[in-house]
Amino acid sequence: MKSTWRLGAVGFVFVAMFGILTLQLWRVQVVPAEDYVAQAEALQVKSVYTPAPRGQIVDRAGRKLAETRPAFSAVVDGSLVPEAAVEDLVSLLAAFTGLPADEVAYTVEDARTRGDRRVVMADLDNEAAVYLAEHREEFVGVSVIPVPQRTYPYGNLASGVLGYIGQPDPVDIEEGAKHTDILGKAGLEAQYDDELQGTEGRIWFQVDAFRTVLDVLGEDFPDPGNTLILELDIELQEVLEQALTDGLELARTEYNPDGCEPGSEEDGTEDKGCPVRAVGLVMNVNDGSVLAMGSVPNFDPSIFVAGLDEQVYQALPEGALINFAVTGQYAPASTFKALTYVMAMEEGISPQDVDSVEEEILCSGQLAKPLGEGSQQVFFNWTREDDGLQNIHDALMRSCNTYFWELSYALWDEYKGTDQENLLQDWARLVGFDEKTGIDLPTERPGIVPDRELFSKWADEDDPRLDPSRLDFESPWFGGDLFQAAVGQGSMLSTPVQLATAYAALVNGGTVWQPRLVDEIRTQDGDLVREFSPTPVRVIDDLSAATVRALRNDLRRVVNDPRGTAHSAFIDFGEDLDQVGGKTGTAEVIKRRTDDEDNVIQEAVTTALFVGVTPIDDPEWVVVVIIERGGSGGGIAAPTAKPILQFLLDQPMTEVAPALVAD
Amino acid sequence: MVLTARRTEPVTLLQRERALRPDLALIVSYLALSGLGLVMIYSASAPRLLADGQSPTELVRRQLIFVVVGIGMFILASLIEHRTLKMLAPIAYVGSLVLLIVVLYMPVVAGANRWISIGFFRFQPSEVAKISLILALAATLAGSVEKTMHWREVAKSVVLVAIPAVLIFRQPDLGTMLVLGFVAVVMVFSAGITWRQFAFLLISAVVASVSLFKAEAIEEYQIARITAFLDPTADVANTGYNLAQSKIAIGSGGLFGRGLFQGQQTNLSFVPEQSTDFIFTAIGEQLGFVGATVVIGLFAVITWRLLVAAANGRDRFSQLVAIGVAAMLVFHAFVNIGMTVRLTPVTGLPLPFLSAGGTAYIAMSVAIGLGHSVWMRRSPVPVDADL
Fold first, then answer.
1. Is-cis flag, bond preceding A146, omega within 30?
2. How far is the alpha carbon of B332 from chain A, nearest alpha carbon, in Å?
3. Does A42 touch chain B (CB under 8 A)?
4. B contacts of A37 (beta carbons < 8 Å)
5. Which residue of A has its CA nearest to B255?
6. What is the fold of A333-534?
7. CB of B375 within 8 A of CB of B6?
8. Which of A87, A300, B75, B376 is most exposed, with minimal Cβ within 10 Å?
9. How far does the CA of residue B307 sit from the closest CA of chain A (Å)?
10. Contact at 8 Å (CB) between A620 and A649?
């Protein structure tokens, strides 16, 4: 009996084991019971987001430019696809959707690594949606969810303004977007994404561990996005885009009777002389509302709705996705003379040989001025020959460079190096050049108004935009630069929307309006959410009414006077021609080059510009047309603007036809 | 307890009748656990079966058959004479080894070959092996004397354990291997091993396990289960899922539970294998700490009765059988319940009498039947039951 201790020891160990179990049970069950109950309940509920229908975008008459219709998408939930099922699922899905297997495999793998849902195929037709829903067991982890689809009933029209939507990129994801979200990526879709998104709904299910839905516990219905009501008029937009298309076509045939393709620099097919695109907009000069805007070639936003196809993307012309009316920066060229004109009148600057701008001087074919930097430059007027005696009014009508250079010379000679040196630039900045207009679109650029300060900064920063030879001088800013600036060339750059804003301010008496596309935001039920009233950026109080009147009249003469640079373009305009004013511009973008034997290597390439204002007695609208590398302002841009102005004045529209090369 | 061989004394008829009186405490506990098992299996399986369009009583009806068969086997085992049993021990041992070899050539089910199928009857030879090892060890160690155990007997015991252990390891079935080890240690200890021998055995065991790991002979999933046990939050979705879900379910039971058939977690199938290995989770969730403690208490009662039987065993063979059965029962209960509260790794050991499953239930019934038989044939001479 001595050895009973062994059995006792075994018994003791057994008792200890049961004791430990009981203790641990006490710790797990009794001590923190509340916490586990909550955890247990959370596990039994699964919620699914139901996407909100994206808000509509309508034009000023309520016509739907972008709307949303109900549709279904197939999504794969990565957390529900086991490794072993991947291969079968991919081949099944590829066969079912007709998508390439590697693409499907990528989506499935991506969903699995992230453990959440990815869209396999958007906008399923009814038959496919029903089939998928009925064959859930075969398509492991795939479900069909309602994902409303965006549609753009007007196709390409206003695409630059509307923009497009797309799936979130890594940056969006970092900022909290879900992979199944659809976000605005460009244009108004991006600018007003928060308004358009709406609030997604959520459905709570009670599920078991196999995620079989046992019961629907509740639902928050999605809140559709708000409606954007635009100032834009889709009919005018159609007129604008048709005119731009015709104008671009005209420019191309003028360049080469067989037409041309601009090609691309990358693959060596570039034809530098071929007109690239046409850009335009129509704006109300009295409140900044944008009635039409765009560039051609453009795109159909619906190609982005189901995910952009690589082939479709490759087939898009270069820059088709960009709204050049806000993003493109162009030398305003002679259209800028209206600003120089106003500056001279207001500041009392006149050519040195005369006492007032009302007196005439010779518009010579070329001009040489001692500008003091050792660079005795010769400047040529576009006419190359003398153009007769002109005062400032004639000079604007005839777009006489020499006259405006004389003005700049007078300015330079009198004020260079003083605080008055920037009189011209200050006026330019007053009317909105050199700053973003604040239009409600992303990707707007500010343009450039050059002056001594900017060039010094460029010199300090070795900016490639500055010719290195200038660094040898005390200051890199020359008198010749002011000459260039006075006629909108050199380093001067402006966006089309800036040009419209500036012209609006000059002809409306001095108010710089912030251009705006959206007038109101309403809920889907029509309740007003936000109203955008016209916003003046700046009011130029001391702009004299006389100057404004004179400018309007001279703009009218550009179009109406037989010697005006745009006259031939408007010859068949119709009866209200006297209500049309405008200014042509021709910007040299590529210089003519010859080799040693005077053979032409490169013809000069110019961008054609026209800014129209109508009705000129009491201006309402400003129209900007720019044909990039299109030729001359009078010959190409003015004829392109003609039908737009005709439409604005309720005139029958006439064909976009070539006019005399002028400016 | 007397561990020296007893002289067989003549037993009167009266004494024999008294001796054959069954152990009511053990039988009541055994039946209570079995009954509770049926209820909990129904509770844990019915919702899922219903959802799959099957009869909700499908699983519980099958288990009922096993329970009936098991009780029959318990009675049979209780009636077996220990002398017969001792004679049967070598046959049972060799037979179970054969079955363990055969099973390795059977089709793989769930990543392991643990099943032998004959027609629609399937059973796990490893369950049989546990019992035959107890018998074989008891027979081998019956001759040894306190503090005089020979190295030869130690070596024999090691070989007896090693052969089935290796075969079971090949299946692979880590849990059963551990059962064999635990049972062997308890039996060898009770049989009077010296401290030096005991230390030697322990060191050898450690060396053997380390070399197994080194040789990468242990399957990845087994390592994964053990690492998941060490840090269950690391990988909640997969390996740790069982553990985390189970602990949440048990934890939500609280003191009195959510009520029978009210187990949200277990009824909604969040806890995997809830009618088999994780049945205790359903008990913990639905019956709370009180219910869970009652279950542990019932196991403790059976264990106590087996040890009392051992203390009163007629001979050393019987005594060692009862101790071995008790060790086997305790180890199963400890590892299984411990796993659901994250005390022990997931090893796939069923909870005796409660987990759904035929072979395990019947084998465990036979085992405690053998222990019960020791009680029924206990020494007529009162021994100092100082346990």
1. no
2. 11
3. no
4. 251-252, 254
5. A30
6. Beta-lactamase (3.40.710)
7. no
8. A87
9. 7
10. no
Contact residues on chain A for B307, CB-CB shorter than 8 A:
7, 10-11, 14
Whether the ω angle into residue A615 lies within 30 degrees of 0, i.e. cis, is yes
Q: How many A×B Cβ pairs under 8 Å?
A: 153
Nearest chain A residue (CA) to B288 = A29
Q: Does position B74 have pLDDT exceeding 50, yes or no?
A: yes
Asked casually if ipTM beats, i.e. exceeds, 0.95, the reply is no
* Structure tokens that stand for A25 in this block: 């049970």
Mean pLDDT of B207-234: 60
Residue B284 to residue A25, Cβ atoms within 8 A: yes
Residue A266's Cβ-count burial label (10 Å; 0-12, 13-18, 19+) is: exposed
| Residues in B touching A10 (Cβ below 8 Å) | 186, 189-190, 307, 323, 326-327
Give the right CATH number for A234-324+551-648 from 1.10.3720.10, 3.90.79.10, 3.30.450.330, 3.40.50.150: 3.30.450.330
Determine, for residues A36 and B289 on separate chains, whether the beta-carbon distance falls below 8 Å. no
Q: Using the beta-carbon criterion (under 8 Å), do B341 and A8 form an inter-chain contact?
A: no
A397 backbone dihedrals φ, ψ, rounded to 5°: -60, -40
A79 touches chain B (CB under 8 A): yes
B325 neighbourhood in chain A, CB within 8 Å: none
Query: A208: which chain B residues are within 8 Å (Cβ-Cβ)?
Result: 47-48, 51, 268-270
Q: From the first residue on, what is the mean pLDDT of each consecutive set of 10 residues in chain A (663 residues)? A: 73 94 87 62 69 92 92 81 82 87 88 79 82 78 82 95 90 82 92 92 69 68 92 97 96 89 81 93 97 96 82 87 96 96 95 93 87 67 87 95 94 91 96 96 96 93 87 85 93 97 96 96 93 94 94 96 94 93 93 81 90 96 97 94 96 89 80
Q: Establish if A32 touches chain B: CB-CB under 8 angstroms.
A: yes
What is the average per-residue pLDDT within B268-293?
A: 78
Judge whether residue B383 has pLDDT over 50.
Answer: no
B158-to-B140, B169, B205 alpha-carbon distances in Å: 11, 16, 10
**For A8, nearest residue in chain B (alpha carbons):** B387
pLDDT-based confidence at B385, cuts 50/70/90?
very low
Token pair in block for residue B305:
């009765």
Quick check: B30 and B353 in contact, CB under 8 A? Answer: yes
Cβ contacts (< 8 Å) between B292 and chain A: which residues? 25, 29
Domain ranges within chain A, ordered by starting residue: 43-77+146-228, 234-324+551-648, 333-534
- CB hemisphere CA count around A545 (13 angstroms): 2
The three-point CA angle A188-A189-A190 to 5° equals: 85
Q: What are the tens digits of pLDDT across the range B173-194? A: 778 888 998 999 999 888 888 8
> Superfamily assignment of A43-77+146-228 in CATH?
Penicillin-binding protein 2a (Domain 2) (3.90.1310.10)
